[in-house]
Design goal:
Layout: H1 2-38, E1 41-46, E2 51-62, H2 67-75, E3 81-97, E4 101-106, H3 114-124, E5 126-132, E6 135-142
Antiparallel strand pairs: 1-5, 2-3, 3-4, 5-6
Length: 148
């Protein structure tokens, strides 16, 4: 009987976590779509005109992908993670608008090292940055070429 109660509680905890993550992903997707809808102007910039900045950080990585085992072990205080060094990069581009002055566009943090990103940029040659013509603080980089 106690085992059935424990299994039921674990299942409930798993479902709560699953639906919260799903809801968070849905909200992020809606926010991204709203941003893309407001950014109606496009800058096509040369990759050579961009600056790539690199950062190093440490990240906790899961050793065991099975969620059920992680939940059960987590209740017992066991951890299946380790620290690993992660290289990340951003693309920075400054543009001078005749009426509004200089704007600096910084890409989201990309999980790729500086040298690899530079190779992708040189192969791509141009990048599109979409921005809101009324508010240059609203923008996004079209980085679909990194998925290829």
């Amino acid at each position: 009987m106690k085992a059935l109660i424990v299994i039921t509680l674990l299942l409930i905890a798993y479902l709560v976590i699953y639906f919260r993550r799903r809801q968070a992903v849905s909200k992020a997707g809606k926010a991204t779509q709203l941003l893309k809808d407001s950014c109606t102007s496009r800058l096509t910039i040369k990759a050579a005109d961009c600056e790539v900045k690199n950062t190093e950080s440490w990240e906790e990585v899961e050793d065991m992908p099975n969620t059920n085992i992680r939940v059960i072990d987590g209740l017992g205080g066991k951890s299946h993670t380790h620290q690993t060094q992660v290289m990340r990069s951003v693309i920075v581009y400054g543009h001078l608008f005749p009426q509004h002055g200089k704007a600096t566009f910084v890409s989201p943090t990309l999980r790729i090292d500086k040298q690899s990103l530079l190779l992708h940029l040189m192969a791509q040659q141009t990048i599109n940055v979409y921005y809101n013509p009324h508010d240059h603080q609203q923008y996004y980089f079209d980085l679909a070429f990194l998925d290829r």
